[in-house]
Amino acid sequence: MLLGLSALMLVLLTYAVSRTFLHRWRRLQARVMAAQLRGRDRPQPPQFLYARLRAMDPFAFEELLVESFERSGHEVERNHRYIGDGGIDGQVAIDGHVWLFQAKRYADSIRPEHVAAFENLCRLNGQRGLFIHTGRTGPQSRAVITDGSVVQIISGRALLALLTDGSLPMLASSANHAQPGSALRRSL
Fold first, then answer.
1. pLDDT 10s digit of each residue in the chain, 188 long?
2. How far apart are CA 29 and CA 50, in angstroms?
3. Which of 67, 82, 84, 114 could bond 34 through an S-S bridge, CB–CB 3.0 to 4.6 Å?
4. What is the rounded distance in angstroms from the CA atom of residue 91 to the CA atom of residue 69?
5. What is the spatial distance between Cα 45 and Cα 37, in angstroms, rounded to a whole number?
6. In angstroms, what CA-CA distances link 31 with 41, 55, 85?
7. What pTM value is reported for the model?
């Protein structure tokens, strides 16, 4: 009995330590990549940078976006877990408005249903959203984002600009869907 209980405790301890280690490793990987993209690797050809981003751990890519927003001076609320986050990878305050964001590390074209699901999620939360990805945005995915959409897609050159110098494209006006104020909603 005591041996079984000891074995169970060892397994639980190993699991907790490995989770903490992985989280720290992902954040470190993101910090290193952010420093490289804003420093020595900034002049690299875009194809090289996209290949590096697509080779990253998907959760480290989420952390890279958080790191890039923070380095740009934006207040960020990061999620406490990567899986089971309800489709919201974090929140960022930009020009006094809170934006939800979702990070996708795709090698191919993004799926329109993923964009539509995030659009619905943002509407349900009464917030605007940034769908940030490393893939290609096809015409069907672009069609999901209409004039009345609360989601903007950040990819390609706009993504590289965010990661290399911290600039964001002109974000659509924060119409009545966004909640003004710089305080991030901690309830998500």
1. 766 666 665 555 555 555 577 778 888 888 998 889 999 888 999 999 999 999 999 989 999 999 999 999 999 987 765 555 567 888 999 988 999 999 999 888 899 999 999 999 999 999 999 999 999 999 999 888 887 889 999 999 999 999 998 888 777 654 444 444 445 554 44
2. 16
3. 67
4. 10
5. 11
6. 14, 16, 22
7. 0.79
